[in-house]
Amino acid sequence: MSELVVEPLGERAIRMERTFRASRERVFEAYVRPELVRRWLGTSRMDWHTCTIDARVGGAFRYLWTRGDFRMGIQGVFVVLEPPARIVHRERFDGSDGETLVTTLFHDEGGLTRVETVLEYGSTEARDRVLATPMRDGISEGYVLLDAVLAG
Amino acid sequence: MVADPARLDAVFAALAHPHRRAILERLAGGEASVHELAAPLPVSQPAVSRHLSVLEGAGLVTRGQRGTYRPCTLDAHPLREATEWLVGFRDFWASSYDALDALLAETDAP
């Protein structure tokens, strides 16, 4: 219901913000209950394979998506869980040695919820790699080609 | 996020030329020789060979040898990796949050 804000923050972090038309309790719940997370996190380009969440401080979560023989996985551990206001967790993508510290704040805005997320990476390079967009010369055309090739 | 950044750079660099994309499109239809690949393009055969070297370097094309016939074959695997990477950080979250909007609307109390 609002524009997604994605911006660099300092040297090594990314800040995101988005507002939802629901109470903090309900939005928070959608972040920690696997049957709800499965219904929104990810993209239509990937299918859920595994979604487990042990929503306790020190508890682990595991997300795994697949698309053909491609797999994208994230594993993480909760550092802070303060319903309905704050989640802090560490996460790591499969095949990456970089760990990210993610702080998610749920702000009450008169019945709406503004979700503010700060992702802190290990280095500026790691952060910039995440922010890089594919909108370089030829890439968007390449994208169309990729779809054609993959469909064939 | 999973793929090696250097390899992704090679794939994107390879895709950034219209003749190389034309070559890949042709190979998506089946193997072909350098001569066959050069025929529809307004460039010389050596130029096509140079493009093939770039595509080979990116792991997108392999060249075989059957007698005097040297077929070029498409390897779509790096394309698949690149496609998934192209989802991008912002796209991932924009798409996820739109789905969260829908979920929250759906479970709205009456």
Mean pLDDT of chain A: 84
Span of the ends, CA to CA of chain B: 41 Å
Could you state the order of secondary-structure elements of chain A as H and E?
EEHHEEEEEEHH
Average predicted confidence as pLDDT of chain B: 85
Unreliable parts of chain B: none
Count of individual beta strands of chain B: 2
Fraction of residues in H or I helices of chain B: 55-70%
Strand order of the largest sheet of chain A: 1-2-8-7-6-5-4-3
Beta-strand percent range of chain B = 5-15%
Counting H and I runs of at least 4 residues, what is the number of helices of chain B?
A: 6
CATH topology of chain A: Alpha-D-Glucose-1,6-Bisphosphate, Chain A, domain 4
CATH topological fold name of chain B: Arc Repressor Mutant, subunit A
Description:
The complex is a heterodimer of chains A (152) and B (110). By secondary structure, chain A is an alpha+beta fold. Chain A has a single domain (5-151), classed as Alpha-D-Glucose-1,6-Bisphosphate, Chain A, domain 4 (2-Layer Sandwich). Chain A contains four helices and eight strands; from the N terminus they run ββααββββββαα. Chain A has helices at 24-32, 34-37, 124-131, 139-151, and strands at 5-9, 13-20, 47-53, 60-67, 70-82, 86-93, 99-109, 112-120. Chain B is mostly helical. Chain B has one domain: Winged helix-like DNA-binding domain superfamily/Winged helix DNA-binding domain (Arc Repressor Mutant, subunit A). In chain B, a hairpin with an 8-residue loop joins β1 and β2 (72-74). Chain B is elongated and about 65 Å long. Chain B starts with a helix and ends with a helix. Classes of the chains: A alpha+beta (152), B mainly alpha (110).
